Automatic annotation (TrEMBL):
SUPFAM superfamilies: 4Fe-4S ferredoxins (SSF54862), Radical SAM enzymes (SSF102114). One of its GO terms (molecular function) is 4 iron, 4 sulfur cluster binding. The lineage of its organism: Bacteria, Bacillati, Bacillota, Clostridia, Peptostreptococcales. This is Pyruvate formate lyase activating enzyme. It catalyses: glycyl-[protein] + reduced [flavodoxin] + S-adenosyl-L-methionine = glycin-2-yl radical-[protein] + semiquinone [flavodoxin] + 5'-deoxyadenosine + L-methionine + H(+). Keywords: 4Fe-4S, Iron, Iron-sulfur, Lyase, Metal-binding, Oxidoreductase, Pyruvate, S-adenosyl-L-methionine. Pfam families: Fer4, Radical_SAM.
Length: 303
C-alpha cells in the first residue's frame, strides 16, 4: 500500500459537509479544471512553491541546487521543473523561507490520530472528517478505504468530496465506510466538459448514476462559473437538473466561482488560464437556486 501525498489537513472547516469538520486534502487529480483554485493539488508528485515576495534574490538556492534547476529570470528566480527532483536542498538553504515543498506522505495512523484530535467539535456540531483533494478517489484506495473504515469504527462521520472521474471499483472499495458523498457536477455538455476540465464527463455521470442506484447518500456540488456553465437561458443548469431529477438525490449546493487561488499559479510557475471567468451576479445565483427548488431539490448557495 502506498501512502498518498497530503497537502493539508484543515481543521474547523465549515464548507466541506455538515457541521464542523477536518478536511484532508490529498495531492493529485485526474482533471485540470481551468478555474481550479487549488493548483498545488493537481500533480501527484511534490511541488516546489516559490514565494517571490519573501525572496531577496541572494542566489543561494541557485548555487546549492544539485541539479541546476534554478536560474535567474528577467523578473524572478525561476525553476526548470524537468530538472527538479524535489530534493528540498534549496528549501533548507533559503534563509527567507521563500521556498517550500507541497505534499507530504502521511501514514494512516498519523492521519487518523490528527483527525481524532477534533472529535469534540464533530460531536457537538454533527460534523466529522471530509476526505478531499485534489481527488481523493484517485489515490491508493486500500489506504483511503482503511482511513474511512478506521474513522467510522471510531464513530467519526466520513464524507468524500469527489469529481467522480475514477473507475467505479474505487467507489465500491470505500462506499461501505462513507456517510456522505459530496459529488461535483460541472457540465452536462461533453464538449465543454472536455474543453474546461481536459476530460469527458461520461465516467463522472455514469458513476453518479451507479452511486445513486446503490443508495449512497449524495450531495451535489455545482460550481457556477460565468464563461463556463452560466448563460441567459440557464441552458446548462437546466440540463443538470434534468440529469439529476431521476436520481435519488435531494441536496444541491451551488458554489459561485471565485479567483482566490489565482495567486498560487505564480508560486508554482504555472499559468492561470481562467482570466475570462467571472462570478455570476447575486440575482443570477438566486434565479438558478429557484430553478433547482422548483424541481424539489433542497438547494443552498455555498458549501
Ligand atoms: S535562497 Fe531564497 S531568498 Fe535566496 S534567491 Fe533563493 S529563494 Fe530567494
Ligand atoms: S528541490 Fe532540489 S532539485 Fe529542486 S530546485 Fe530545489 S534544490 Fe534543486
Amino acid at each position: 500500500m502506498m501512502n498518498p501525498l497530503v497537502i493539508n489537513l484543515q481543521k474547523c472547516s465549515l464548507h466541506d459537509g455538515p457541521g464542523i469538520r477536518s478536511t484532508v486534502f490529498f495531492k493529485g487529480c485526474p482533471l485540470e479544471c481551468v478555474w481550479c483554485h487549488n493548483p498545488e493539488s493537481q500533480s501527484y508528485t511534490k511541488d516546489v512553491l516559490y514565494n517571490e515576495e519573501r525572496c531577496s534574490r541572494c542566489g543561494v538556492c541557485i548555487s546549492k541546487c544539485p541539479n541546476d534547476a534554478i536560474y535567474t529570470g528577467e523578473t524572478m528566480i525561476c525553476l526548470d521543473k524537468d530538472k527538479c527532483t524535489r530534493c528540498g536542498t534549496c528549501i533548507d538553504y533559503c534563509v527567507n523561507n521563500a521556498r517550500e515543498i507541497v505534499g507530504k506522505e502521511s501514514t494512516i495512523k498519523d492521519i487518523v490520530k490528527e483527525i481524532e484530535k477534533d472529535r469534540m467539535f464533530y460531536e457537538e456540531s454533527n460534523g466529522g472528517v471530509t476526505l478531499s483533494g485534489g481527488e481523493v478517489m484517485s489515490q491508493d484506495m486500500d489506504y483511503i478505504s482503511q482511513v474511512a473504515k478506521t474513522c467510522q469504527a471510531k464513530g467519526i462521520n466520513v464524507a468524500i468530496d469527489t469529481c467522480g472521474y475514477v473507475k467505479f471499483q474505487n467507489f465500491e472499495k470505500v462506499m461501505d465506510h462513507v456517510d456522505l458523498f459530496l459529488y461535483d457536477i460541472k457540465l452536462i455538455d461533453e464538449e465543454k466538459h472536455i474543453k474546461f476540465t481536459g476530460k469527458s464527463n461520461d465516467l463522472v455521470l455514469d458513476n453518479l448514476k451507479k452511486l445513486s442506484e446503490r443508495g449512497a447518500n449524495i450531495s451535489i456540488r455545482i460550481p457556477l462559473i460565468g464563461g463556463v456553465n452560466i448563460d441567459d437561458e440557464n441552458l446548462e443548469v437546466k440540463k443538470i437538473i434534468e440529469f439529476l431529477k431521476p436520481l435519488n438525490i435531494k441536496n444541491v449546493h451551488l458554489l459561485p466561482y471565485h479567483s482566490i487561488g489565482k495567486h498560487k499559479y505564480d508560486k508554482l510557475y504555472m499559468k492561470y488560464e481562467g482570466e475570462e471567468l467571472f462570478r455570476p451576479s447575486d440575482e443570477k445565483l438566486e434565479e438558478i437556486k429557484k430553478l433547482f427548488e422548483q424541481n424539489n431539490f433542497k438547494t443552498k448557495i455555498g458549501g
